[in-house]
Structure formats: structure tokens, C-alpha cells
Design a protein that fits this description.
single chain, about 290 residues, alpha+beta, Alpha-Beta Plaits, 3 domains, three-stranded antiparallel β-sheet, elongated
């Protein structure tokens, strides 16, 4: 691996998952969407030439355009869409010879698969087009054990939120916050399949990640959707029992179910699931107390 060789030759360097635009430093692209950071003042001209020569063969000719748009926040989306959902995967263990087969299997696992973005040597993001919403939560939870056994991998997976293209915040900023939450979570040694809601509630106790941009977006979504704030509060008070909630709100049960389903299509949040409901209730607390 060129990265290992660079570390052997330049032990003060650092391997990063994102490029760093910092005066006095060189941020050199490696394979697998990683970068090697070196302090320029510590290098002789000959060493600079050597580094450039070594990394030239590893530079990606052209990044996945979705990487540029979603991760770097630059340019336009490669194609039109209304809603996207990202599935974040970290491989704490894998066998190199099985990696391509695992990636191909994951691509066929999702009925609304759009593209794969590699953001690190052990990190992949599967982008799902959710213009016509299709829940993949049960697909992941039902298959992860078999996938790990069949392909010899150990996985940490977070199912992200559903984001609209015309979001209240920049899509790249929302994804950056999701990625940071997921990274902190798997670095604590956690594995398995979890939703954004579960990691969000976990992070509240840890107080180690800033999710204000996501909180503001979801709160705005709640405020803008007809009766959703009232539904969240009533479901919370009635332990997510739909019959009692419908009676309290003077709604027909089918009308209540329609509004709950519409909210899931917009955000991926299932209000009948207590973890998702808790997240939404926490978001509206400042408005009701």
C-alpha cells in the first residue's frame, strides 16, 4: 500500500478521510478517497518531488460525481432527484478477496439503489433514491448476520434520514453531520444495523457531536407539515397507540395513518416506532413547555 510506504518514509504525516485546505500543508490524494497530510516546511525540494511521484499513480482520474456533490458540497447533482437516503457502512473487518462480491451484493440488496461512494479504506456510503419511498430498514436488519457470515465481514451500519433536494439546509451539511455521528459511534466499537434516531439519542448522552443543522431541518419539517406536531405529542402521550391518538385528535384512524405514512415518506421516521417518536418528541419539546 502506498499509504503505508508514505508513513514509513514520513512518520510525521497523517492519513485523513478528507482533504485539508490549510496554509503550509500538502494534502495529497491516495486511493480509496483518502489523503496524506504533510507539513510543507519539513520537506526538502527533493522530498516534495518524491511524494508527488509516489502519489501520482494513486490519484483517482475522476471522482464519483456524487462524491463531489454530496460529500464536498460542490457543483450540481449528477441527475435530478426529489429525495435521497444514505446508508453508511464501516467494515471493521473484511477479506480483500471478498470485498468486490460484498459490494455487488449490497448494490442488489436495495430496490432503490443509486450509487456507491467510497469515503475511506473501510467506509462506504450507499445512496438510495427515495423519490418513491421504500423502507430498507427490515432488509438490513434481516440480512446482516447472513451477510457477515457469507462474506467474512464485520459491519457497522447506520440508516440515515431521508433528505429532500430543496432542503432548508445544504444537503452536504446535513450529510456531514450524519457522517460525523456515525464515525463517532463506530469508533466506540459499536456494530450492527442502527437508525439515525438510535444514534441521535445515544449521542445526547455522550454530548460529543454537534447535530444542530439536522435538528433545525427536522424541526422545520415538523412545523411545516399539517398536524404533525399535534400527532407527535398525542402519540407520545398515548404510548404510540393509534386508536387512542385518533380519538384524542378527533381524526379517523385511517386519516391518522395516512398522515403518519406521509411523514415517513418525507423523513424516513416511523412515528409508531418508539425510537423515532422519541426523536421527534425531543425536537418539539421547546415548543410545548
Amino acid at each position: 500500500m502506498i499509504a503505508k510506504e508514505l508513513l514509513d518514509w514520513f512518520p510525521d504525516g497523517k492519513i485523513l478521510d478528507q482533504p485539508v485546505d490549510k496554509e503550509g500543508y500538502l494534502s495529497l490524494p491516495l486511493s480509496n478517497y483518502q489523503w496524506f497530510l504533510l507539513e510543507e516546511a519539513s520537506l526538502s525540494e527533493r522530498e516534495k518531488q518524491l511524494v508527488a511521484l509516489l502519489t501520482k499513480q494513486e490519484q483517482t482520474i475522476s471522482l464519483n460525481p456524487w462524491y463531489t456533490y454530496l460529500i464536498e458540497g460542490k457543483g450540481q447533482a449528477p441527475q435530478n432527484f426529489k429525495k435521497l437516503q444514505l446508508v453508511y457502512c464501516h467494515l471493521s473487518y473484511f477479506q480483500q478477496e471478498n470485498l468486490s462480491s460484498w459490494l455487488e451484493m449490497m448494490r442488489t440488496l436495495f430496490p432503490n439503489y443509486l450509487t456507491t461512494i467510497q469515503v475511506g479504506a473501510q467506509d462506504y456510503i450507499f445512496v438510495l433514491q427515495q423519490d418513491k419511498y421504500s423502507s430498507v430498514r427490515s432488509i438490513l436488519t434481516d440480512t446482516i448476520e447472513a451477510v457477515e457470515y457469507d462474506f467474512g465481514v464485520r459491519l457497522s451500519i447506520m440508516l440515515g434520514q431521508v433528505w429532500a433536494q430543496n432542503a432548508y439546509q445544504t444537503l452536504a451539511d446535513l450529510i456531514k453531520a450524519e457522517r460525523e455521528l456515525f464515525k463517532i459511534w463506530w469508533r466506540h466499537g459499536h456494530q450492527g444495523v442502527h437508525t439515525f434516531s438510535q444514534l441521535y439519542l445515544w449521542s445526547m448522552g455522550e454530548r460529543i457531536v454537534d447535530l444542530r443543522v439536522i435538528k433545525e431541518y427536522l424541526h422545520r419539517m415538523i412545523v411545516d407539515q399539517d398536524q404533525i406536531q399535534e400527532i407527535i405529542l398525542s402519540l407520545w402521550e398515548n404510548s404510540a397507540v393509534l386508536t387512542k391518538t385518533a380519538q384524542q385528535l378527533y381524526l379517523h384512524r385511517n386519516s391518522l395513518q395516512y398522515k403518519i405514512d406521509k411523514w415517513e415518506e418525507l423523513t424516513g421516521l416511523q412515528l409508531k416506532e418508539l425510537t423515532d417518536l422519541t426523536l421527534c418528541y425531543q425536537l418539539i419539546l421547546p415548543d410545548i413547555i
